[in-house]
Specification:
Layout: H1 7-17, H2 36-53, H3 71-90, H4 102-125, E1 128-130, E2 137-142, E3 147-150, H5 170-181, E4 184-187, E5 190-193, E6 197-199, H6 202-210, H7 216-219, H8 228-231
Antiparallel strand pairs: 1-2, 2-3, 3-6, 4-5
Helix pairs in contact: 2-3, 5-6
Organism: Turicibacter bilis
Pfam family, one: DUF4357
Protein name: GIY-YIG nuclease family protein
């Protein structure tokens, strides 16, 4: 088992070079929301599950290493893993069904909720703000700083003060998409976030907040006025 970005090519190569298999099962995200770290995390979990089941001899040249992802993202990925495990176990009988200890499941779920709440509390301590140009936005880093979350209720700079070049950058396209999705709503001359939204980078978020090209690492600042750039030095 393994991960690939070229499933068709991988399948053809295995068909030519490996004789021990009869069937292949592929799982992918139809929303394209899995990055490399997510996929490596799932690969490791599936490998461990197959090994623990003890029903198959694994032919992997190396043992997949579990990538580091944020605890909140881990919870989402484990939901995906359980879906994969259920499909392979229920539809194809590749995994043995395990006896479920309901009380143990409840206790583990409570522990996860408490742990996630602690993580959220920590993130709230590391909230960053953008308040120039009439904007009033706040958010936090996610996924080792690769993503940035803008919180519900945040508002952008005045629409009238949007940079002339704004329409030429990707944030303008993103803005139109978020408006159609109901994430953003125009109110009194600015855009307000009706929902918390995850951006692919701090700059992707700040571009939309200030309606122009920005450096998010410099624009997002904590309560002490220190920018993300200063804090990561």
């Amino acid at each position: 088992m393994g991960e690939t970005e070229e499933a068709a090519i991988r399948l053809l190569n295995h068909d030519k070079k490996k004789e021990f298999w009869d069937y292949a099962y592929f799982f992918f995200s139809n929303t394209h929301n899995l990055n490399k770290a997510d996929v490596k995390f799932l690969e490791s979990k599936i490998y461990q599950a197959i090994k623990e089941a003890g029903r198959y001899k694994l032919e992997n040249a190396s043992i997949p290493k579990e990538s580091h992802v944020h605890d909140i993202r881990q919870s989402e990925l484990m939901d995906m893993f359980k879906t994969i495990e259920f499909i392979l176990g229920g539809a194809f009988n590749l995994f043995p069904f395990k006896k479920v200890d309901l009380q143990l499941e409840v206790n583990e779920t409570k522990e996860k909720i408490n742990h996630l709440q602690q993580q959220l509390d920590e993130l709230e301590k590391e909230t960053f703000y953008m308040t120039q140009k009439g904007a009033d936005a706040k958010g936090y880093l996610l996924g080792e700083g690769k993503k940035f979350v803008v919180l519900k209720g945040s508002k952008t700079a005045s629409i009238e003060k949007a940079a002339n070049s704004f329409k030429e950058i990707s944030a303008a396209t993103n803005l139109e998409r978020l408006k159609k999705q109901g994430v953003l709503q125009e109110i009194d001359g600015y855009y307000q976030f009706n929902q918390t939204h995850i951006f692919n980078s701090p700059s992707g978020a700040s571009d939309l907040i200030y309606l122009g090209a920005t450096n998010g690492w410099k624009e997002w600042k904590n309560k002490e006025g220190k920018s993300l750039e200063k804090l990561r030095e």
